[in-house]
Structures are given as structure tokens and as C-alpha cells.
Design a protein that fits this description.
mainly alpha; 17 helices; 3 strands; 3% strand
């Protein structure tokens, strides 16, 4: 009995059982190459932590707004599904595809920021509020272009850092600051100092993730600390600010020094906010008592910029800690998404958006409890405002987008380095 003949390449090539080979084409080669770079969907990822935290913050916000302005709470509830839809739209396409739309989004955003500054635009379209031109009237709601500018700016820098590998050089480190001054100056001209303040801390976070040297970042932090100290304590430097901004700083310094001379004028909002925060105690006074206190104290912007005072009045220190605990949870989820992202643009996008949310929450709550001067800034997911809510959920959608995408096969870790 003879051994069976072993198959060889020549016999296999002529085997009738062998499937027919598709003809070679350049298009087929391109499609196969693309398949090697397509990752799947990673359904279980830290991005869902951000979603859960944002939903709970929304619920706290609706309840807090209803405490003081039930009509505004109903309007805010209307925008919740719109905001969720925006998050789905942001999360659906692969975040790498957003790079294609960055130039168009930049042009649209800059045109909108310039549009609100044009003096000949009728007030029926651009509604001035307390001397500020920030909102475009859409009839059913007001749209604030600076909210969109924050997200587009992060998308722009994330795309830019991905293509530039000289971030550790002086020129490469300073150029992002030049890019950032464009939206910052336009927003400051509205004027909107609060929103403009968000850009620099977020930019520093982006630079660190992109691979900037720590001494470069430390130098910027030192210069910023000197500049802030000069604004607070050097009158000639403070005189460069607008009058209402100078008044807020003066009122804050007097409040810190326990000087009540501005309690009934330029420091009224800060003192009333602190009164409500203190009235809440450890566990709060309940809804009915909180409604009475808020109505009696006549706190300005209690449903918007000062909503944290309503939370601490109704639910006390516990309510404030729960609120910040949810922001911390959101931050953990966002930074985990950034850490697990395979490519540089994903890490930058998640880290930048998460940092901006946390910095905004820190400034808002800080000014409410008297730690920093008052500036116009909403509390993310909680304050009343359609454009703010939609923008915040847009950021959550983008963070989730990064978390959902698995690393592409045959993809190397991207690291921004320079000689």
C-alpha cells in the first residue's frame, strides 16, 4: 500500500475544489487596504460614564430651575430631547471624519461671532442684554455662537496638533496661542469674559496631551498667575477692564475682606448668593422654603448663572457635594476615554472637551460661593439655556464617539515628539 501523494503548490493551483480568485484591480486593493484600518464599535467604554453623569446633572438642573422658575423648567425640558439628538449626531460618525468638516465649521463659527458684533444688525435679530451682544434670536429660542465656538475650537486644535509634530519647539508651542486669540478676542468684544476665560486652561490641557514640555506649560501658568494678580491688586492694570468688570472685582475683594459697603449695589448678587448658600445648611431647607427664600432675596439670574445657589439652598451642602461628585464622575469617564484612545486626535478631543466642562463648572460654582469674582457663565447641564444645553450634550456625544471606536488594525500609537 502506497502513501497518499502530499499536495503541493502546483497540484493545489489546479485543484477543481479551489475557489476562483477575483481578478486583481487597483480599486480592490484600495478597498482591502481600507478594511485593515477600520475598527469596530466598542460598546462598553468609559464614555457611558459621562452620559450617565450628564443625565443625572440634567435632572438636578430641571428640579432646581423648577424651584425658582417653573416656566423656564418647562422650556428647558423641551430642549433635553433636542440636546440628546445633538449628542447622537455627534457620536454617530467616526470622530476622525470630523476633521473634514473643521475648515467649514471654523468659517461658519467665525462669521457668526462677527455677525453678533455688527452694530447695524437689528436688535430683533441680535438681542443685546445688559450691554452684551451675544445672542441671535431664532424666534423660539436664542442661540449663542460662543457656545459653538468652544467645541469647534477644540476640534480645530485637535486636528492641528495631529498634523504638527514640532509642539516641543518654541514656535510650535506658541502658534496654538495665536490661533486661540482669534475666537477669544471676538468673544471678549461681545463682551463675554467668562467664556473667554475657558480657552486658556483648556489649551494648556491640550498642549500637555499633545506632548509639550512641562517647563513650557509651567511658564504659561506662572505668567497667567502674575497677570491675574496684577488685575486683582494693581489698579492701573485693572483699569484696562470694562467698568462692570472692575466693579465685580472690587465687590469680590470687599466681600473677602468682610466689607459690606457694596452689599446693596455692585456686590448685591454675590452677597445674595452667599446668603442662600449659607441658608441651605447641611441638608437644605426643602422646595417650599427654598422658593420663599429665593423670592425674598431676589437673587439675579437664579435660574441661570446662579443656579448652584438654588441647589445648595434647597439640598444644602449634600446637594452641592452630589453635584460636584457627578462632575468628578464625568471627568473620570472623559479622561479615561482620552487615555484609552489609540490615536492623538481622539486623546486630544476627549481631554479637551472634558477639561472645558470641568473648568466651566469650577468657575461657576466658585463664583457662587464667593471664591472668585462673578462672571457670566452657566453651570453645564444644569443652568437654564437651550444653546448651552445642546452644546454640552454635543461635547458628550463627541467624547462617547471617541470611546466607541476601537483601535484600527495595523495602527501605531501616535506620539507628538520633536528633536
Amino acid at each position: 500500500m502506497t502513501d497518499p501523494e502530499l499536495p503541493t503548490s502546483s497540484t493545489l493551483a489546479h485543484s477543481p475544489d479551489r475557489p476562483e480568485r477575483e481578478p486583481f484591480t487597483a480599486r480592490g486593493l484600495h478597498e482591502h487596504a481600507r478594511e485593515l484600518h477600520i475598527g469596530g464599535i466598542r460598546w462598553w467604554n468609559p464614555g457611558w460614564i459621562c452620559v450617565v453623569a450628564a443625565v443625572l446633572l440634567n435632572l438636578i438642573g430641571l428640579s432646581a430651575i423648577a424651584t425658582t422658575e417653573p416656566d423656564f423648567a418647562s422650556k428647558q425640558a423641551f430642549f433635553v430631547p433636542v440636546a440628546l439628538l445633538a449628542a447622537i449626531v455627534a457620536a454617530a460618525p467616526d470622530y476622525r471624519r470630523w476633521r473634514r468638516w473643521v475648515p467649514s465649521l471654523c468659517v461658519v463659527t467665525l462669521l457668526l461671532l462677527i455677525f453678533v458684533l455688527l452694530p447695524f444688525v437689528p436688535e430683533e435679530i441680535v438681542r443685546p442684554r445688559k450691554g452684551a451682544r451675544r445672542w441671535i434670536n431664532f424666534g423660539f429660542t436664542d442661540f449663542q455662537p460662543s457656545e459653538l465656538a468652544k467645541v469647534v475650537w477644540i476640534l480645530t486644535l485637535a486636528s492641528w496638533f495631529r498634523l504638527r509634530w514640532n509642539i516641543r519647539s518654541i514656535q510650535g508651542f506658541l502658534l496654538p496661542f495665536v490661533i486661540t486669540t482669534i475666537p477669544m478676542v471676538l468673544i471678549l468684544l461681545e463682551p463675554d469674559l467668562g467664556t473667554a476665560l475657558l480657552f486658556i486652561p483648556t489649551l494648556l490641557a491640550l498642549l500637555m496631551v499633545a506632548g509639550a514640555r512641562m517647563w513650557q506649560v509651567g511658564t504659561v501658568v506662572l505668567v497667567g498667575a502674575i497677570a491675574i494678580s496684577a488685575v486683582l491688586f494693581v489698579p492701573p492694570v485693572r483699569g484696562l477692564l470694562k467698568e462692570h468688570q472692575q466693579d465685580r472685582i472690587e465687590a469680590h475683594l470687599a466681600q473677602v475682606a468682610n466689607d459690606g459697603r457694596y452689599r446693596s449695589n455692585i456686590g448685591y448678587q454675590g452677597y445674595q448668593a452667599m446668603t442662600l448658600v449659607g441658608a441651605g445648611g447641611m441638608t437644605g431647607v426643602g422646595r417650599e422654603h427654598a422658593e420663599t427664600l429665593i423670592r425674598y432675596n431676589k437673587l439675579p439670574e437664579e435660574h441661570n448663572d446662579m443656579i448652584f445657589a438654588v441647589i445648595t439652598c434647597r439640598w444644602g451642602l449634600v446637594g452641592g457635594m452630589v453635584t460636584w461628585g457627578l462632575f468628578a464622575l464625568l471627568g473620570v469617564g472623559g479622561f479615561l476615554v482620552s487615555a484609552l484612545a489609540r490615536d492623538l486626535i481622539g486623546r486630544l478631543l476627549a481631554a479637551g472637551l472634558t477639561t472645558m466642562i470641568l473648568v466651566q463648572a469650577l468657575i461657576n460654582t466658585g463664583m457662587t460661593v464667593g471664591l472668585i469674582p462673578i462672571t457670566g457663565m452657566t453651570l453645564p447641564f444644569i443652568s437654564s439655556g437651550g444653546s448651552s444645553l445642546v452644546t454640552m450634550w454635543l461635547t458628550i456625544g463627541l467624547i462617547l464617539n471617541v470611546g466607541l471606536r476601537r483601535p484600527r488594525r495595523m495602527e501605531r500609537w501616535e506620539i507628538a515628539t520633536a528633536d
